[in-house]
Amino acid sequence: REKYQDFPTISMETTYYDTFDLKLAFHHWTLRRRMENGISVCTFKRPHKDGGRGEWEVEASSIMEGVMKLCQSGADLELMRAAAGGLMETCGARFTRLARQIDLPGGKVELALDRGVLIGKGKELPFWEVEVELKEGADQVAADFAAALAEEFGLVPEPKSKFVRAMALAMT
């Protein structure tokens, strides 16, 4: 338990976006702008046909600047075409993250402890979660570490992302 102390703190406020005709949702794409301790970061995620996921992240002062920079850094150019018709805010999250990188045999993960609220359609839903993200190595490194944490601390997996849960809140 001592090895999980002294985590840097990051204040996060996330806004998720889609087109007015929900084209991003149709493709299972996620576009967000997140303020991380005052720094604006835009992220685009999309599934791959092999079951994996592509993820691009850039600093940008607005979501439209972010879309341009994301496409320049290798994200699907269809994102720029879709965003040209305008974007709308769909939902969001506001939370504090305690996070640090942990070196493991065969790889590296980021362990994040998040506490905050999901936001959708003027409603808020509190959440607490532990997140393990693979930074280097095989997927199994993160899976084994997450399973060990779950066993040690009695954690229950949450298969739905913050985005999916915030969208569900926005749809009710």
Shape label: globular
In percent terms, what proportion of residues is strand?
A: over 45%
Distance linking N and C termini: 39 Å
Question: Main beta sheet: strand number and arrangement?
Answer: 7 strands, antiparallel
Order of adjacent strands in the largest pleated sheet: 4-3-2-1-5-6-7
Question: How would you describe this structure to a colleague?
Answer:
By secondary structure, the protein is an alpha+beta fold. 26% of the residues lie in helices and 47% in strands. It is built from five helices and seven strands; from the N terminus they run βαβββααβββαα. The chain has a seven-stranded antiparallel beta sheet. The protein is globular. The protein starts with 8 loop residues before the first strand and ends with a helix.
Topology of this protein?
Layout: E1 9-19, H1 23-26, E2 30-36, E3 39-47, E4 53-59, H2 63-72, H3 78-83, E5 87-104, E6 107-120, E7 123-137, H4 139-153, H5 162-171
List keywords for this structure.
single chain; 172 residues; alpha+beta; seven-stranded antiparallel β-sheet; 5 helices
Give a concise summary:
The chain is α+β, with helices and mostly antiparallel strands.
